[in-house]
Design brief:
Mean pLDDT: 94
CATH architecture: 3-Layer(aba) Sandwich
Number of domains: 1
Low-confidence stretches: none
CATH class: Alpha Beta
CATH topology: Trna Endonuclease, Chain: A, domain 1
Shape: globular
Helix content: 25-40%
Radius of gyration: 15 Å
Order of helices and strands: HHEEEHEE
Strand content: 25-35%
Length: 131
């Protein structure tokens, strides 16, 4: 049976800051805008809080030991430890969860947050995923 190490404290701290920033952005803007608007505002809010934010992070795929640019773009990588995928959809479905899990696997990162801003209460739009 495989055992997993707990998520490092620093990574948990980064995730907490991301969630707090998402709450602030959502309470200021509400639902109904484009994903790109939330991305810019969330990045700004995180940078104000001292986080390093990489937006539209290009992720190559290694296939048969060759790095290929397959057009994968992660919405955000925060402090090189947490992947954030943003959505503005009626409902989070399993394809978005699978996408985030794949990004975690391909990057070797352990923690990702799926954030859907198209909800009345942002707490209902945040899904934490651990690999």
């Amino acid at each position: 049976m495989k055992t997993f190490e707990p998520i490092p404290r620093e990574t948990e701290r980064v995730a907490k800051v991301i969630i707090e920033a998402a709450f602030k952005v959502h309470s200021s803007l509400g639902p109904g805008l484009l994903e790109s608007v939330y991305e810019v505002c969330l990045a700004y809010e995180l940078e104000k809080r001292g986080m390093k934010v990489e937006r539209q992070f290009t992720l190559p795929v290694v296939y048969e030991r060759i790095r290929l640019d397959a057009g994968l773009r992660l919405d955000m990588v925060v402090d090189q430890s947490v992947i954030v995928e943003l959505k503005v959809v009626e409902k989070i479905n399993s394809i978005f969860e699978a996408q985030l899990l794949t990004y975690l696997k391909l990057t070797g990162k352990r923690l990702g947050l799926l954030v859907n801003f198209n909800v009345p209460l942002i707490k209902d739009g945040i899904k934490r995923m651990v690999l």
